[in-house]
Amino acid sequence: MIELSTKRKTSRNARYHHGDLKRTLLSAAETELAEKGVEAFSLRGVAKRAGVSHAAPAHHFGDACGLLTELAANGYERFIEAQVCRQKSAPGDARSQLAASGLGYIDFATANPALFRLMFASERPDKSADVLSRAANLAFDRLVSDIQNIKGTDPYTDQSAMTDVMSAWAIAHGLADLMIAGRLDRATFLRDRTPAEQDAVFADIIVRAIGSQPQ
Amino acid sequence: MIELSTKRKTSRNARYHHGDLKRTLLSAAETELAEKGVEAFSLRGVAKRAGVSHAAPAHHFGDACGLLTELAANGYERFIEAQVCRQKSAPGDARSQLAASGLGYIDFATANPALFRLMFASERPDKSADVLSRAANLAFDRLVSDIQNIKGTDPYTDQSAMTDVMSAWAIAHGLADLMIAGRLDRATFLRDRTPAEQDAVFADIIVRAIGSQPQ
DNA sequence: TGTACATCAGTGAACGCGCGTTCACTGATGTAC
DNA sequence: TGTACATCAGTGAACGCGCGTTCACTGATGTAC
Question: What are the helix and strand counts (H, E) for chain A?
Fold first, then answer.
């Protein structure tokens, strides 16, 4: 009875027709993913977590691939947000901005390891889906633009600048992936440092990955 | 009948007692892994592929975790071999040797993407198992030694050198992981280049990730 | 304002599937004597 | 050389489980009149 009245108070939609089930399912799916990992992710688990019949997700997403695709696309938005967030509180020069972007990349991965792996290493989402490929391209374009601001040339026409794009991407990605694999902190004394010191090490590594030619 | 006599000819052990089933299972498991991916890997699939009862693998590995752990450990051996192979045909100076090691890292990943992911990104193998952690540490020690040859100091006592270790590892790992995710070739014109040109780009990126101080 | 009806979100029972695990077994091998 | 026996690798039937999918259904909503 208490539960019922609470439901009524907190949400007029908590009835037979949920009203906001799609968003609820996405949120439940993210928790499911974080707790079980991509390998053990299941639609039934998501439905259970959302407190809904196991057949309900099909109405909104068709199958697990559809759900995971939207989840990954949504992940890219927050992936970019994490980078923007770091950039806002960093110095305005082009190199500091690139380093900040890389730190945001690592922030996102360590905060959402399973989601990060879903976005970059899983076969389950449909990478050719518009929502997903568009979101992923947006993130890539930001990197290209960061490099252009450092080099002063367009990576799409300057091969040397595109090499810098690859280098910056690979270094941020490598640090992020090794971090969530638990490899860096154990072997490299990284865990003996404060978060600020860690950031400084990462920023140093990121910046040096870019050729040292002045703008 | 033909099959039977063939069996007799090709292997005296192809009888009730297989004789070499453990090795056969490992080989079948690798194929299974490569074709199905870590997510869909199953013991029954391996047994079927090896032409053996589905309960047989338990005799040798206990469960899927045991099999995958040995598979990963075996993977590290070949991972190191791929790096040694590149180093043998590279110039002897310390920087070229490091670059060669990185190229071997990428070679292995692109040749065995699922196995690489099993080794670096899966929760299924038992990372605390002796065979596995020892094999992984061996690979790490090789990298540490490569850096020591460049810097002239021991990374375990010189923080700046350990930063180089992290940097070199991250760049090779990032390139490798992005390659097998199919990200680099599409976006960065890498596929327009010959394999030798790709190697040159990668080697350039790897070497520049190391601080430029002379030995 | 009220009634009828189409639409659609969500239900829950049922299905078949592949999985890991168990267990009594069978057949080959090696060793003792 | 031959026999008896312990050991162990591999079998195959059986089990319970969670999964995705299907489908007839129910209950709420919105709209036409």
Answer: 11, 0
> Could you please report the per-residue DSSP string of B58-75?
HHHHSSHHHHHHHHHHHH
Residue B42 CB coordination number (10 Å): 12
Contacts of B167 in chain A (CB under 8 A): 171, 205, 208-209
Query: How many CB pairs below 8 Å do chains A and B form together?
Result: 110
Measured from the CB, is A16 under 7 Å from any atom of strand D? Answer: yes
**The residue to which tokens 């390998």 are assigned:** A39
How many Å does it take to go from CA A6 to C1' D27?
21
**Residue B4 in this model has a pLDDT that exceeds 90:** no
**Tokens representing A104?**
């945001």
Which H or E element spans position A3?
helix A2-10
Q: Could you say which residues 44-83 of protein chain B have a Cβ atom less than 7 A away from any atom in strand C? A: 44-45, 54-55, 58, 63-64
Element containing residue A177 per DSSP (H, E): helix A159-180
Say whether A188 and B38 touch across the interface (CB within 8 A). Answer: no
What's the number of CA atoms in the CB half-sphere (13 Å) around residue B97? 15
Residues in chain A with pLDDT values less than 70? 1-19, 213-215
Query: Which tens digits make up the pLDDT trace of B142-156?
Result: 999 999 999 999 999
CA of B76 to C1' of D13 (A): 39
CB within 8 A of B155, min separation 6: which ones?
Answer: B144, B147, B148, B161, B162, B164, B165
